[in-house]
Give the backbone structure.
Amino acid sequence: MKLEITPQGVIAGSIPLFAGHPARDLLPIDSIRETVERVWLEPGVTRLFNYGAEQGNPELIDFLVERLRRAEKLPVARENLMIIGGSTWGVDMISDQLTRAGDVVLTDAPSYRDALHIFRDHRLELRDVPIDGAGVVVSEMERMLRELKAQGRVPKFYYVVPNFQNPSGITMPENRRRAIIELSQRYGFLIVEDDVYSDIRFEGELPPSFYALAGGENVLRIGSFSKTLAPGLRIGWLIGAAERIADFVGGGVLTMGGGANPFTAAIVAQYCRSGEWEAHVRWLRGQYRDRRDMALEALASAMPASVAYTRPAGGYFIWLQLPRSVRVDDLAERSREQNVYFAPGTGFFVEPDAGLHHLRLSYSFLPPEDLHAGIAVLGNLIRQMSR
Amino acid sequence: MKLEITPQGVIAGSIPLFAGHPARDLLPIDSIRETVERVWLEPGVTRLFNYGAEQGNPELIDFLVERLRRAEKLPVARENLMIIGGSTWGVDMISDQLTRAGDVVLTDAPSYRDALHIFRDHRLELRDVPIDGAGVVVSEMERMLRELKAQGRVPKFYYVVPNFQNPSGITMPENRRRAIIELSQRYGFLIVEDDVYSDIRFEGELPPSFYALAGGENVLRIGSFSKTLAPGLRIGWLIGAAERIADFVGGGVLTMGGGANPFTAAIVAQYCRSGEWEAHVRWLRGQYRDRRDMALEALASAMPASVAYTRPAGGYFIWLQLPRSVRVDDLAERSREQNVYFAPGTGFFVEPDAGLHHLRLSYSFLPPEDLHAGIAVLGNLIRQMSR
């Protein structure tokens, strides 16, 4: 079942703990409005309403290249980056251009549900590798690669959300990243790094990206403004080797329709170049950290000791492990009666049953009182059900 | 070679007769700016910056459904229509969801080059059927279907631009549409009707759409605001049977990213509901009719009698047939030396050589003086080359 999140809020009185959306009150609507005013004053504003360059808004490309060079010391150039219509566009375009039906794709168990959905739409054969508290277990990945190789098969790519993973909130440390890059070179597959949460970092440092560690070879890295500005603008970016980016830019979709939305890309470019985006990101970190803290406090007081959960250092999500006596589908049914909705673990695995005792909570979208109330309802139900 | 159409115009001094873009001075920039002002005043404007409903902006859906019922007496309901990110999105999504590599797709010879590009990206096997002055030749299509059937194959769909075709400008009459629907039922394939030019009608009436003639069964019809408002907003629509639309709306791409750009869709919705769009379309028809007339006058005075060309009753394009002694690649090379660029016929056929004596001119984008000058250059070259 899919709840509609209406303009007035979610269905009257319900608590959607599943919603991985930015909080409404954290969207900088007034700043976007002022930004649009400035866009109208740009020379050549007319071009924003015609077909745009296939690679995307040039000013936004320049801004992002400069930021990657400055903040990550990443030796990228214009030809390594293109603007896309949100991370979704990236995942879809990569699947379109680099795979055909029946190809194998590796993911984590659990992995991001909606990306699995896109891969299934492309009729890809998904294999997921278990994670622990530090992300995917490398020895398990190697075992799977050997197994595939014995069948004469090689995955097309490994899809991973490396930082503050959706759904687990876990960040993969550098040594695992290096080990996976080594496997990708040995077995010959690409790494698709869906890195949309890295700017929502509450504490600590992030390891270098797969892209950085691999020297830009055979890694495609996706970024997005959806989590740090506004999903409704539908703007993100893709980084890769120059020849791969050129292939995407020269594909039929971009040749026919031009680049990612020229008007909203220009709004984002203007917002970034004024310095507002980076200031907003710094502010957002504190806001989402407070929400993460509230969610963890609520969990600490509401959950029985038999429930384990992650403590993410960034991002939007917490991943819960239920006692073996509690099935997540039963819990979902009973929480629905109290108007509390969450994302059952079953959606995040290639084999749904592997998620029968897991669930994902999102602390990004809900007002604090709903977050508390929803978690309290779940805690009570789990206590009752695990008796 | 691909020319960049820069904010300052096309590469200094050149004449891009290939550009199938709306003319810059016909984009209603000031009205769009005023429309955006009204969008900020909408209740619940915040929702436009979060993830949007998968089916697309509800007000725009309602507007389009009402317009189709009113203007075409088409018995469509909300569940028959979804908002898409331009016609490109429609062609790509249909290819993604309804085909797999190796499937056969029928098109016209010639057909829209960039759609062929998208089909090739999906590794579809393209078969094109010759057209005459009234569109695709039905007996040839039937011959091809029989030939395919003998190999145990059925096309997945027939892709057609039925009104003011890109590249020929030709409109297919009702009797052919009915005959093709009959074939689609007999052989079991879908019809994908890319109908982005029907509102740019200069004279006469258009036949009912394939969608209307087939009673909405097994036809997907694509519409767009790119030709009648502004390509840079990236908004169009798709009409089909309710269960097909539900399949698209429930796909991974829309589940992950939400519906087509919520902000620009709201701008389009506001512009449509105020009545401005239909008024703008009426005005545009006169503007593009004048340009079509100028192009035909220029052709009449510049071209030798050995050159045949179409006289479109709408749309953006004229299709030229060169004398057999003139190859289009030679002409392109020589016209390039004079900074005149056009779209060679070779790009519009499955077998490029079939277009060796054809070319497409666009009269939509260029100022009248460039249109005249460019056509004069081509006429002179053709005269010289066919001596």
Observations:
- Chain A has a mean pLDDT of 95.
- Chain A has two domains: 5-28+278-386, 32-276.
- Chain A touches chain B through 62 residues (CB under 8 Å).
